[in-house]
Amino acid sequence: MNIVLLGPPGAGKGTHADALTHALGILQVSTGDIIRAAIKNQTPRGLEFKKYAETGALVPDDLVHALVEDRLRQPDCQPGFLLDGFPRTVVQAEWLDRMLERYRRSLGHVLLIEVNDAMILERIVGRATDPVTGHIYHLKFDPPPTAEIAARVVVRKDDTAEVLITRLQEYHEKTAPLVPHYEQAGLLRRIDGLGTVEAVRARVLASVGVTPEPLIPNPQPPAPSPYS
Q1: For the chain, how many structural domains are there in total?
Q2: What is the pLDDT of residue 222?
Q3: pTM of structure
Q4: Taking the CA of residue 34 as centre, how many other CA atoms within 13 Å lie in the half-sphere pointing to its CB?
Q5: Is 97 inside any structural domain?
Q6: Cα 149 to the center of its chain, rounded Å
Q7: How many C-alpha atoms does 198 have within 13 Å on its Cβ side?
Q8: Domain annotation covers residue 150
Q9: pLDDT digits (tens, 9 = 90+) for 97-119
Q10: Is 191 left (phi over 0), alpha (psi -120 to 50) or beta?
């Protein structure tokens, strides 16, 4: 099964991508991870990306397309894939349709996790990471349990209202138009992203025909915060 996962920043795509790939036995393909790996490994395309990143110039679609195509052609993507972070525009979506058709493949579902801007802001602004354990807290919803931890947590520079509002504006301008594109193709599945992580997870899995396994209480330490 081949899936595209859409949603605004802070909608929980990373959390639910993990659940989907585990349940379906497919690979998560993150364009961000691909680009970082290409730069780290100093591949020819990675060096091109690095050049654009260092100058702050816009990366051409052709370069992104080539990297995505190379990754999706790898053997581990043949059973299926979940694309996270691509496509971001209608132009990229139209290219993806044509590329998959060349390889006699197609998308099975496009999942849209919907969360309103006000809730996104409330979720993201206030996140703080414990540099010792890596645990992500939320200063309002899931505060550090002790004064010692509270004193050492770090708030990311991009977890501010100003930065997030800019990211949301970019999402609405560039990525939101993908919704009618995939709706017309009959692929879009809208998922309510509000509620507990478990409730949203159940909706996400149900959208692709998977019944989530019942949660079994255990004495292990709590899972990382849903605000990651």
Answers
A1: 1
A2: 45
A3: 0.80
A4: 21
A5: yes
A6: 28
A7: 6
A8: no
A9: 999 999 999 999 999 999 999 99
A10: beta
Rounded to the nearest angstrom, the gap between the alpha carbon of residue 132 and the centroid of all alpha carbons in its chain is: 25
Q: What share of the chain is helix, strand, coil (3-state, %, to 5)?
A: 50, 15, 40
- Secondary structure (DSSP) of 53-119: HHHTPPPPHHHHHHHHHHHHTSGGGTT-EEEES---SHHHHHHHHHHHHHTT---SEEEEEE--HHH
Domain that residue 22 falls in: 2-116+178-207
Write the CA distances from 58 to 41, 49, 51, 78, integer angstroms.
21, 10, 10, 31
Residue 56's pLDDT band (cuts 50, 70, 90)? low
In a domain, 137, yes or no: no
- Would you say residue 57 lies in a domain? yes
Q: Which two tokens stand for residue 164?
A: 């997030």
Identify which has the larger pLDDT, 215 or 111. Answer: 111
What is the mean pLDDT of the segment spanning 71-95? Answer: 94
Active site residues: 13, 88, 127, 156, 167
Are the C-beta atoms of residues 226 and 15 closer than 8 Å to each other? yes
